[in-house]
User: Fold this.
Amino acid sequence: GLGDVYKRQVFMSLGGPLIPGGMRNIVSQMIREGHVDLIVSSGANLTHDLLEAFGGAHYRDEGKDDEELNAEGIGRIADINVGSNDFEVFEKEINRLFEIISAKKPVISIQELIYEIGMLIDDENSFIATAARNNVPIFAPGIIDCMIGLQLWIFSQDHDFTISAVEDMAYLSDFVYNSKNVTACMLGGGLPKHYTLASNILT
Assistant:
């Protein structure tokens, strides 16, 4: 917790397509075993965690080109495939969660939004759900740059729902300031890596 100044706090940053690439259960297990205190993730990794939580899947089916995959309603992430119908389910389910959360908190930080989503998911393999139940905050400064962000924008057109990115900074600065030691496990680069490093120069 924030008051435990003698404990080394471990940041984990998740950049790149780690979750569709097969690391979902590994990240969840690390959270359950207490190896991670705070996560900074790309929006895409959150999206793909939820896609599986809502019943979708990531799989390999090599040998087909993009035109063949597209004709079959399949999208490709490097060598990982996902069905477009899984994204249709994702859109329906994420909007159902937005309805529940916005009714309770019409103004919410990104970290709180991810926590609330995690508490509404019934999937022990979801790293979002596992983090929420183990009080490991997840930050996603680039959440608008993914399918969750697109659905947030569409949802906000006819709902009173505001996502406040700056509210996360107070939580992060307190977290860092109250940690005697901080270490980081940075998987991939990009925005999650930069946000992890930048948050640790706040003190």
In short: Confidence is low (pLDDT under 50) at residues 1-6. The longest helix spans residues 84-104.
